[in-house]
């Protein structure tokens, strides 16, 4: 079967540590956390954590009118604005290709906009439709990000929702890559978003998986550290523009990286407990898709949530594939767990660091948990590396696993 090479020609994202790569990079270099104490959560009786990673200074330009945003909650606004900036970065904003049928969108989030969900909840509790209106469902539906991005940019190609919790963003990138690789589309917008919500913190609270280091927000989460006490929820939105290589070359596009490999699989065992065997397998499948040996990967972007079970299982899966000498770090020490956005944000960071030749350390990793496998956990001031290939891994509730491989591109 004839296949096509796929490259990244545009990227943009919003995160708890910045809203463009230069700002994010500076925060990574200076080891500055985006985690905050959130006093607004004091009102929720029984909620143990008060920590979150909000996106700050998120502003919409004037052309985001009430009319064209009425179907959007915050999660879709993050997704749409990130997509607009990514298209601008790729030089494709306003290009006829976007609405010509050969451009699609693959996007995801863990859930729709939660205030809209709450409106339906009040209906069921109060037996009154209350504030429900024609757009309430459009804000809460599982594919709200995908649909709103498609409508805003008049995209007429494939629409691929990736609604798989913490792998939403990475699955979206993988599905977009496959759509272009097999000739079904020429261009794809791909990514994920999540809005910060106390319900998501409450979910992990109920599992005793959240950090309650409420008086020291800058010291948590602590992926792979023996003194970790759980994850912290964050928010964000990130879009990558993927494009068929020859098309990108023909228009003289700046290319960030090539998407060299992708794989996704399922544990098929337990809905919340990670499985090191299938985590290991998804990495091997991604390498196989890329036609690479594990020794060719110079850096691994870890899922690294700072939960006991997750960190241990992931470390052993990674060690089984790469041994103890491949550098690895997790972005979540800085941003918290941005759920549906994390796969896209971490992919963008991995690509940019590969281009810069510098990789961020694990924030707050002071003493590696002895129960984790032996790996080259990056600490200190980070690591200078000449990397041709990097891998970005994510794992989600439902036993969903993803692995992406990116190749450095020198224009």
Written account of the structure:
With 411 residues, the chain is of the alpha/beta class. The chain has one domain (6-408): Thiolase/Chalcone synthase (Peroxisomal Thiolase, Chain A, domain 1, 3-Layer(aba) Sandwich), CATH 3.40.47.10. It is 33% helix and 20% strand. The chain is built from 13 helices and 16 strands. The chain has helices at 21-29, 66-69, 74-90, 114-126, 136-140, 144-152, 168-181, 198-206, 245-250, 276-290, 308-322, 332-335, 342-356, and strands spanning 6-14, 36-37, 51-53, 103-108, 159-161, 187-194, 233-234, 236-244, 257-266, 299-302, 327-330, 358-359, 376-377, 383-384, 389-396, 400-408. Strands 5-4-6-8-1-9-16-15-10-11-13 form an eleven-stranded mixed sheet, with helices on both faces. The chain has a three-stranded mixed sheet with strand order 2-3-7, with no helix packed on it. Strands 12-14 form a two-stranded antiparallel sheet. Strand 10 (299-302), helix 11 and strand 11 form a beta-alpha-beta unit. Helix 7 (168-181) packs across helix 13 (342-356) and helix 10 packs across helix 11 (308-322). The longest helix has 17 residues, at 74-90. The protein is globular. It starts with 5 loop residues before the first strand and ends with a strand. 58% of the residues are buried.
Task: Note the total helix count.
Answer: 13
What is the C-level CATH assignment?
Alpha Beta
N-to-C order of helices and strands: EHEEHHEHHHEHEHEEHEHEHEHHEEEEE
What's the alpha carbon Rg, rounded to whole Å?
20 Å
The CATH superfamily name is Thiolase/Chalcone synthase
CATH architecture: 3-Layer(aba) Sandwich
Taking all residues together, what is the mean pLDDT?
Answer: 97
**What proportion of the residues is helical, as a percent range?**
25-40%
- Number of individual domains: 1
Q: Spans with pLDDT under 50 lasting ≥5 residues?
A: none
Q: How many strands in all?
A: 16
Largest sheet descriptor: 11 strands, mixed
In the CATH scheme, what's the topology name?
A: Peroxisomal Thiolase, Chain A, domain 1
Secondary structural class: alpha/beta
Strand order of the largest sheet: 5-4-6-8-1-9-16-15-10-11-13
Quick one: overall form? globular
Estimate the strand proportion. Answer: 15-25%
Distance between the termini: 28 Å
């Amino acid at each position: 079967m004839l296949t096509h090479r796929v490259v990244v020609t545009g990227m943009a994202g919003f995160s708890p540590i910045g809203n463009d790569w230069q700002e994010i990079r500076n925060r990574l270099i200076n080891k500055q956390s985006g985690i905050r104490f959130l006093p607004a959560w004091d009102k929720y009786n029984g909620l143990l954590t008060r920590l979150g990673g909000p996106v700050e200074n998120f502003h919409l330009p004037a052309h985001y009118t009430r009319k064209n945003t009425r179907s959007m909650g915050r999660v879709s606004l993050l997704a749409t604005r990130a997509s607009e900036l990514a298209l601008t970065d790729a030089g494709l904003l306003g290009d006829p290709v976007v609405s010509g049928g050969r451009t699609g969108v693959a996007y995801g989030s863990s859930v729709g906009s939660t205030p809209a969900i709450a409106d339906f909840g009040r209906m069921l509790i109060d037996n009154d439709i209350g504030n429900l209106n024609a757009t309430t469902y459009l804000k809460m539906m599982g594919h709200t990000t995908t649909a709103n991005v498609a409508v805003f940019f008049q995209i007429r190609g494939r629409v691929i929702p990736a609604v798989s919790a913490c792998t939403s963003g990475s699955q979206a990138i993988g599905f977009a890559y496959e759509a272009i690789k097999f000739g079904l589309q020429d261009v794809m917008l791909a990514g994920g978003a999540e809005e910060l919500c106390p319900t998501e913190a409450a979910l992990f609270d109920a599992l005793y998986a959240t950090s309650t280091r409420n008086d020291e927000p800058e010291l948590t989460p602590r992926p792979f550290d023996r003194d970790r006490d759980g994850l912290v929820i964050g928010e964000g939105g990130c879009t990558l523009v993927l494009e068929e290589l020859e098309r990108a070359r023909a228009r003289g596009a700046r290319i960030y990286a090539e998407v060299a490999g992708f794989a996704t699989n399922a544990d098929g065992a337990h809905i919340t407990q990670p499985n090191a065997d299938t985590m290991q397998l998804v990495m091997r499948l991604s390498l196989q898709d890329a036609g690479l040996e594990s020794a060719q990967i110079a850096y691994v972007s870890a899922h690294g949530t700072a939960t006991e079970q997750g960190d241990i299982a992931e470390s052993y899966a990674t060690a089984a594939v790469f041994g103890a000498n491949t550098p690895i770090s997790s972005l979540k020490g800085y941003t918290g767990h941005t759920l549906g956005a994390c796969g896209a944000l971490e992919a963008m960071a991995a690509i940019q660091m590969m281009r810069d030749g510098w990789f961020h350390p694990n924030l707050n990793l002071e003493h590696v948990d002895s129960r984790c496998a032996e790996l080259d956990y990056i600490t200190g001031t980070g690591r200078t590396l000449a990397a041709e290939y990097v891998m970005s891994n994510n794992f989600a509730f439902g036993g969903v696993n993803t692995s992406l491989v990116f190749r450095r591109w020198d224009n």
